[in-house]
Amino acid sequence: MWDHSRVSQLMTDILSRSAASLVGLALVIATTISLMRTVVIPRALRSTISDLVSKAVVGTALGVARLRRTYAGRDSVMAAAGPTVIILQLITWLALYLVAYGLLLYGLSGQSMGDSMRQAGSSLLTLGFASGNREDQTIIDFFAAATGPIVIALLIGFLPTIYSAYLDREVEVTMLSAMGGEPAWGPELLCRHAVAGNLPAVSTLLAQWAGWSARLRMTHVTYPVLVWVRSARGTRHYLTALLAVMDAASLQLALNRSMPRHDAYAVLLQGGQALEVIYVFLFRRLGWRVHMPFSGNFLGGSRESQARARELPSWSRQMLATEMAANLDAAHDLDTEAILALQQGEDHPVTITREEFDAAVDLLRRADFPIDTPLDEAWEQFRISRSRYEYAVYAMAREVDATPAPWSGPRRVPTPTLWPTFVVDLLPEVSPPTEHTNTTPDTDA
Fold it and tell me: Which pLDDT score, from 0 to 100, does residue 291 have?
């Protein structure tokens, strides 16, 4: 006669172990895919596991940072967010592999869940204090023993890649602080070059930052954790530095018609694409749906803004066509909703006012920067140019709590603007010429 309770218990045990095997196998596959997409494959791929770790760490850091009263305090908290994400990703992958192999051992053996996890941990970390005698368990032990060192070795190789990209980014940001201010600001960058009598170097700097922007776009989309790795000083940030360079390019195009223009167009194109692609790829896909009163667009501006740009002498129709073609290419495979959100941002005016623009022009005049464009026309040119990147950079600066530099938008926590030292305020005052008595002897006497 069948014992129904024992049969029921046996069926429950079989079902639970079968389910554990399936879940364990699925977890091994999911964790391996996450590891491959995050560390191994050099492409702009996302991983749900890595994203969840990043959101948890960054969300916690932002919550703690809000408790600090000053920006310096918030920056010290946020400085640990990026490195913490990297370490917790390793721990998460190892923990998931531990659970996965433990479930597989539990499903294929008759031992308890605790013994299965103990055996999996022994094999994964190559400790060797617990193992199974059956052939199927031995195979799992071999896979687990290979997985642990591989994961650790991949992270050891991953860290130099991350910090190499970080150092490449920060060298240019640090160099900019000498001629662009700290924090960097576009008008001050032009002022310092003008005062130093080295305006030709502006074109060289803009060309360097066009290449820097392309590298930023590639590295920060391929390795998203870099977005949260901050500069060594709280008064520097890669976003505000790029914004300063792009504002300097926009001001040069708006105010001066004689300086070289190609490099200014190049940095606006490459910088704008870098900002908008990172914004679309990272922040919009994280579910960020906050409506912000900033302006901006992705595909080279609305038809109205493009028509206005063509009417301005500072714009080259050939460069405008090149920009539109490049942006259309860059939009491939990006989130349509995010692109539309960026386009709709242009319905709002830029946040920089005419009074702020005039104040910046006054600083440039005091620095003897050559201005040969009527101010009304220059303001319209600058406003249109800035509308092409303001929305994306303001949104990202708010999200990562970047340095509150001038013209960089608001932060989550209201923060006073940090201003660089104005070089024109340090110029020696020119004394009026004094009258000299003619002491030359009179030769006619």
Answer: 37
